[in-house]
Amino acid sequence: MRIAVVGAGVGGLAAAVRLAGLGHRVTVFEQAPTVGGKLGRFARDGFLFDTGPSLVTLPHVFADLLPELELRRLDPIVRHRFPDGSVLDSGDGFAERIGDAFGRSAAEDWQRLWRRAARVWESSWRHVLSVPLESPLSIARQGWRLPDLLAVAPGGTLRGLGRRMLRDPRLRMLLDRYATYAGADPRRAPAALVAIAYAELHYGGWYVPGGLGRIADALLARAEAAGVTVHTGVSVTGIRPLVADGVRIPTDAVVANADATHVYRDLLPTPSRLARLNDRSLAGFVLLMGVRGTTPGLAHHNVFFPHDYDAEFDAVFGTPTRRPRPAADPTVFVTAPDDDAVRPAGHEGWFVLVNAAPQSTVDWTVPGTAERYADRVLDVLAARGVDVRERVAFREVRTPADLARATNAPGGTIYGTAGSLLRPPNRGPAPGVFLVGGSVHPGGGLPMVLLSARHVAELIGPA
């Protein structure tokens, strides 16, 4: 079969590799000048930044497709800093670390939650994540057992689960954070997202020396070795039929590695009800900073929590009486790899991320808005004990509007459909159309994107 892949992100390249291995003739079309999609990179003054994902989880999923990929285990996975000044590192023996930091009762609560999370993960993996989604009904037909349903707790929220099972407010805050991994508000996100915490802590967090952008390099090399043709700088304006740079391209099937909303709304002949899927999903406000010197106590990944987490969610998602807006006192995520390959000697390269409302609800292009908020984020870090304002050699600001322009992600949303276990299916709404990537089944994050590519290859089958 002649198969066109639209988008050379991780999902598109992985699908191309698998489909070429099944004997198909595969051509990839990418609008950007380089491959990788949201797994972007930025270089300046001897620094190399990953501008997308910064953590690898579920390493066995990567080993299936890229056995040569070098991974380095991180410990801690994340250093959490709470408003009261306490610090908790996640990683191996997490319950023991909780006991040392917060006391025995907090550790016992976490162990009880952990047993619940393990059941949710096992059920989700068996019934949802590891199987293709042809339509929303296909998951419903999987034959869930009663213990599976009790563990997943349909109708319950992640916030509610934490309130029931964790007495320490800091652990509740930590659990809430995992909803943001799916672009969701923990007060509305399904309780089943506790599986994200389990996957990260059980399988560990990993880093690719030289930066996670090397995953895209490895996939491109695999694709080209398999005979895949990759065209960059090509604009696709329709997929049934496929139209690339104004030219109609004959195909037997199309795999779309673009945001599902963009596919349904812009690339298919008839827009559908999925056109507004992303409205309540998170975007991100990013600073890429070269920092002189070293910062004591900084881990690879760091989370600085606010005093009022709900105020942040109210700002970013909006309330019935107020539109979304930049959060005044946000959670700040800082990634600073200890890797000489990505920073000059005597410096640190900081990737700073703040949860943000998408461009569709906040106009990040208004002159001065981005720079003022960048100043605010650095002021927040300083108030939390990490003041680098006098050590910043340079900073680059990336807003949701920038990501929207670069990747066609509506509003610059990062995670696709917020917080849902059932995302748009891998089989598209038109004959011969299939979808891969973080906005479709089985979800966001690098391992889920790789699984989506496996699912599409299974649905299409051998040539």
Automatic annotation (TrEMBL):
Which Pfam family, just one, is annotated for this protein? Amino_oxidase
Protein's pathway? Carotenoid biosynthesis
Question: Which Gene3D superfamilies has this protein been placed in?
Answer: FAD/NAD(P)-binding domain
Spell out the molecular function terms from Gene Ontology: oxidoreductase activity
| Presence of the UniProt keyword Oxidoreductase in the record | yes
In terms of InterPro entries, this protein maps to: Amino_oxidase, Carotenoid/retinoid_OxRdtase, FAD/NAD-bd_sf
The superkingdom listed in its UniProt entry is Bacteria
Which intervals hold domain Amine oxidase?
A: 11-460
Question: Which SUPFAM superfamilies has this protein been placed in?
Answer: FAD/NAD(P)-binding domain
Keyword annotations from UniProtKB, A to Z: Carotenoid biosynthesis, Oxidoreductase
GO terms classed as biological process: carotenoid biosynthetic process
- In which family does this protein belong, per the annotation? Belongs to the carotenoid/retinoid oxidoreductase family.
Q: Which PANTHER family does the protein's record reference?
A: PHYTOENE DESATURASE
**Name of protein:** Phytoene desaturase
